[in-house]
C-alpha cells in the first residue's frame, strides 16, 4: 500500500495550507480543461463541421480514458515521489491545451483530448488522497473540501470565463489561455509542494481486495449514477439554456458563472456535513439532482425558471465530489490512494457514459427525453442513499439499545 514516509510527513507540515491550495489549483486546472468544451460546444462543432452530439465526444472520450489511466498511474508510479508525478502531469496538461487550441479537425481535437484524459486520471488519482498527507487529522475534512473546491471553482471561473473568452475572441484563444494558466500552476507546484515519497507502491492485488469492499462498492455505484445522470444534461447545458429557457448566447457565460458560485457553496456545505452524516448528505444531493431535470421540464421554459433551476442544480452538484470522496475515505481508511483511483475511474466512466448517452438521446430524441433519462438515474441513486441512511439509522438505534441494556 502507498504510505508516506516520515520525512515526507515532516516536510508537508511546514506550509500545509499553501500546499493544499496548490493541489486545489491543480484540480481546478485539469477540470477546467476537461469541462471547457461544455461552454464552447456549439462554436467548436460549427468550426470543425460536426454535429452537437459528436462534439460531445470531447467530454466523453477523455473521461473514459481517465477512468483507465487513474489506477494505471497509481500502479505504474511505484515508489516515485508524488510531487514529481503531479508536476509532470501538469506539464503534459500545458501541451494538451496548446494542441487543442491548434486543432484543425475533429480527429486532431480528439487526439489532444486523449492526452487530457491521461492528465485527468493521473492528477485526480494522486491529488484526491493528499489531504491526509498535508494537514493534521482534524483538518482533513477542510483540506479535502479545498482540494475538491478546485472542481467547483472550475465551474465558477474556468468554464464561464472560457465561454466568455470564446464568445468574444474565439474558442481557440480560450484553450490557449488555459495552457498559460496550467503553466502558472505548474510553477506554483514546483515552488510550494513538498517532497511526497511513498514507502511502497500499490499492487493489482490490493486493487482487487478493495473492489470486494462492500461499502466501497456502494460508493462506486452511487458515483456512477449521480455523475452519469448529471453529465447527460450538463454536457448540453448550452443548447438547453438556448432552446428550452430561451436565453440569448451572450448570457451563457454569466449563467454558468452563477451556476459555479452555487457549486462552490454546495462543495463547502457538503464538506462540512459529509464527515458526520455522510449518507444523509448524499441523500440530499441525490434529491437535488432528481429535482433538477423535473424542474427544467416543468418551469424551465422561461428565463426566470431556467435561471433558478440552474442555481439549484449548481448547489446540488457542487457537493458531489467531496461528498462521495468522504464516503470513499471512510470505506477504505487504510487504502486511500487506491480508493481514490477507483473513485476517479468510476467518476470518469460516469462522465463518459453520461456525455455519450446524452449525445445519442439529444441527436435522436431531443433535449426533453434526455432530461427524463437523467432524472431516472438520479431517482435510483436517491433510493439507494435512502436505503443506506435507513440501515445506518437502524444500526445506530440497535447500538443505543444494547448500550442502554448493558448499562
TrEMBL record:
Keywords: Cell membrane, Membrane, Transmembrane, Transmembrane helix
Location(s), subcellular: Cell membrane
Superkingdom as given in the UniProt entry: Bacteria
Domain Major facilitator superfamily (MFS) profile residues, every copy: 17-393
One Pfam family recorded for the sequence: MFS_1
Membrane topology, from the record: Multi-pass membrane protein
Main subcellular location of this protein, as a coarse class: membrane
Membrane-spanning parts: 57-78, 85-104, 110-130, 142-165, 171-196, 216-237, 249-272, 279-298, 304-328, 340-359, 371-391
InterPro entries: MFS, MFS_dom, MFS_Efflux_Transporters, MFS_trans_sf
Matching PANTHER family: CHLORAMPHENICOL EFFLUX PUMP RV0191 (PTHR43124:SF3), PURINE EFFLUX PUMP PBUE (PTHR43124)
Protein name as catalogued: MFS transporter
The species this protein was found in: Cupriavidus basilensis
Amino acid at each position: 500500500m502507498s504510505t508516506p514516509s516520515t520525512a515526507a510527513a515532516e516536510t508537508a507540515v511546514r506550509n500545509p495550507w499553501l500546499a493544499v491550495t496548490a493541489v486545489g489549483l491543480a484540480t481546478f486546472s485539469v477540470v477546467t480543461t476537461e469541462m471547457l468544451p461544455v461552454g464552447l460546444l456549439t462554436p467548436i462543432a460549427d468550426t470543425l463541421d460536426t454535429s452537437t452530439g459528436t462534439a460531445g465526444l470531447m467530454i466523453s472520450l477523455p473521461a473514459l480514458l481517465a477512468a483507465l489511466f487513474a489506477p494505471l498511474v497509481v500502479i505504474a508510479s511505484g515508489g516515485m515521489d508524488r510531487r514529481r508525478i503531479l508536476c509532470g502531469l501538469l506539464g503534459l496538461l500545458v501541451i494538451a491545451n496548446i494542441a487543442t487550441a491548434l486543432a484543425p479537425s475533429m480527429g486532431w481535437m480528439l487526439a489532444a483530448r486523449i492526452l487530457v484524459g491521461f492528465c485527468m486520471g493521473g492528477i485526480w488519482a494522486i491529488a484526491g488522497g493528499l489531504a491526509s498527507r498535508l494537514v493534521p487529522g482534524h483538518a482533513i475534512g477542510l483540506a479535502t473540501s479545498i482540494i475538491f473546491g478546485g472542481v467547483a471553482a472550475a465551474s465558477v471561473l474556468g468554464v464561464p470565463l472560457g465561454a466568455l473568452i470564446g464568445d468574444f475572441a474565439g474558442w481557440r484563444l480560450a484553450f490557449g489561455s488555459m495552457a498559460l494558466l496550467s503553466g502558472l500552476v505548474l510553477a506554483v507546484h514546483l515552488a510550494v509542494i513538498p517532497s511526497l515519497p511513498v514507502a511502497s507502491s500499490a499492487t493489482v492485488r490490493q486493487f482487487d481486495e478493495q473492489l470486494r469492499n462492500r461499502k466501497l462498492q456502494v460508493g462506486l455505484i452511487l458515483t456512477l449514477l449521480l455523475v452519469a445522470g448529471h453529465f447527460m444534461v450538463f454536457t448540453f447545458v448550452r443548447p438547453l439554456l438556448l432552446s428550452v429557457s430561451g436565453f440569448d448566447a451572450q448570457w451563457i457565460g454569466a449563467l454558468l458563472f452563477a451556476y459555479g458560485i452555487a457549486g462552490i457553496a454546495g462543495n463547502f456545505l457538503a464538506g462540512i456535513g459529509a464527515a458526520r452524516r455522510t449518507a444523509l448528505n448524499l441523500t440530499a444531493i441525490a434529491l437535488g439532482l432528481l429535482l433538477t431535470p423535473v424542474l427544467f421540464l416543468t418551469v424551465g421554459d422561461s428565463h426566470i425558471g431556467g435561471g433558478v433551476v440552474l442555481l439549484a442544480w449548481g448547489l446540488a452538484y457542487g457537493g458531489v465530489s467531496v461528498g462521495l470522496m468522504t464516503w470513499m475515505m471512510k470505506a477504505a481508511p487504510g487504502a486511500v490512494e487506491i480508493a481514490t483511483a477507483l473513485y476517479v475511474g468510476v467518476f470518469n466512466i460516469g462522465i463518459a457514459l453520461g456525455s455519450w448517452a446524452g449525445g445519442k438521446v439529444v441527436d435522436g430524441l431531443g433535449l426533453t427525453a434526455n432530461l427524463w433519462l437523467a432524472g431516472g438515474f438520479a431517482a435510483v441513486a436517491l433510493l439507494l442513499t435512502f436505503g443506506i441512511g435507513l440501515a445506518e439509522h437502524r444500526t445506530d438505534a440497535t447500538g443505543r439499545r444494547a448500550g442502554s441494556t448493558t448499562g
